[in-house]
Each structure stands twice: as C-alpha cells, then as structure tokens.
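Hello forum,

I keep getting stuck at the same step: I have a sequence, I want structure tokens, and every attempt I make locally crashes halfway through. Rather than fight my setup again tonight, could one of you with a working pipeline run this one for me? It's a single chain of 298 residues.
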Amino acid sequence: MLKELKSLIAVSHEGTFAAAGQKIGLTQAAISAQMKRLEEELNLVLFERNGRAAQLTPAGHTVLLQAKEIVGLCQELGTDKPPTAPAQQTIQLGAIASLQRTILPAVLAQVHNQHSGCRSRIVPGVSLDLYNMVDSGELDLAAIIKPPFSLPSELRWTTLASEPFELIAAKKWADHDWESLLRTQPFIRYDRVSFGGRQVDRFLRKNKIHPHEICELDELDAITELVRHQVGIALVPKTLSQPHWPSDIQAWSLGDKGFHREVGLVHRISHAPSSAMQTMLAIWPQLVQEQMAQSVAP
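Reply #2:
Ran it on my machine without issues. Output:
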C-alpha cells in the first residue's frame, strides 16, 4: 500500500492523475488504478469524480494526512532521528440543526480541550443527506434522526434520545381534542423528505386523517413560529432543543397513538478509531443525559 500512498500524495500536490504520473514516472492509467485499489482497500471514496481535476473528498483529506505521516515514518526508518509529533487528528462531523444549536458546542468544547491537536469540520444538513455522507465515507460521524430502514453492517447506530411527537396549536384551541383539530384546522406539515416528516405522514395515513395542508417545511423552529402566529396547527417532535413550548402554544400528547423519533449517532465501524473520535462517541450520550436531566429539574 506504500506505493499507493505515495501516489496519493503526488496527486494532491499536482492536482491531476496525469500530472502526478509524470512527476513520479507512472502513466495516468497506472495512477488511476492505484487510487481505485486504495479506495477499495479502505472502503472509502477519496476523490470527487468531477472533471479532470482530482479533488479530494473530506475522507480523502483525512487519508492524505495519515499517508503523509506513514510515508514520513518509513523514510526515517533506520535513522537516529527522534520520532515526530503525531499527525493532527481530524473529525468530519455532520449534525442536524437542532443538535448544532444545543449539544454540539459542548461536545466540541470537551473534545478540543482533551485533544489539543484535533481539528473538526462540521457539516450541516438534513438527516438523509448526512447519513449518505457517512455511508460513502465523506463523514466520520453524523448526529441525525434514525433512518426508517436497516443500516448496513459496516455502520453503527447509537441512540441519544427519543423525542415524542405532539400536536401544537394556538392557545385559543385549548378546549379541543387533538384529533378533531387535525381533521378541521389548517395544517403545517413537517417536510415529508425528512425522516421525522415521514413518520408524521405514516401516522396520518394509519389513522385515516387527511388534514387541510397549507404549508410544508423542514425547519422545526419556523413551524413553531407559524403556529404561534395562528397560521395553523402542526405535528412536531418535542426536541432536546425545546423541552418546553412557548407560553402562547398549547400542546397535546397523542396518548396511546403516540410515536417518537430517535435522535442519535451513525458512524462507520473502525477497528482503530482515533482517540479524539473515541472521546466524541463517549461524550455525546453523557451530555445528552445531562441536558435531559436539567430540562425536567424543578
């Protein structure tokens, strides 16, 4: 694999497979075959397949840092040069908006305080996109809503919290029941593209409820604001970021018809995760539990 790692470094320096081949005395086809072999060996996508330029993916940048360290150590074999400092640890992390606003800053603070050489890159997005980026190797880890399908064997899921869905409406509807409101009042729908929105859609179809839909969007804070302005009612999760509804909103539990969304972490199974990655995986559940305890404290 050492030859492939040297070629990867050359590609990063020269910008194309052809230029890298000229630099180290190989054909473009040979460089291309080496990079394909390296990707297959690591089970990662290292390059964006767009145009002639060889653009590294986030996973590719991480492997490049590791490759430089490995090649450097090999060049020092047999010399009396003292060991170099360990390579900078990099974590590529995705997170949905609600977790970026709440738990993520505390997680990053602890990871960086414990691992001074660590570098983190945070990618925002919806759960489906972030899941796909972990699956393709572009992200190391993502904090998302649990997918409604089985995960492949190389991915692992860790549940952080279970968030119940509730019906929310303006206070003027406080003396009505949730089902009658869903059947009669304007409905603000949680985007069906999102994992949580799919759960709402299944709930409505299962209970044969066909609401008068007037708006569909993914941002939960925006949905809450629309409800506060009496635009309509909504079925949304009671999230970690909003353990209590605003005073001018009435909320209803769905009782025995209730359902939840699971918030958690998805990451690739690694036999040798970095120390920073191990810390991050351990700290997320701990901080979530602390926040949940604070939200129910009198």
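The first strand starts at residue 47 and ends at 48. If your local run keeps crashing, start a new thread with the error log.
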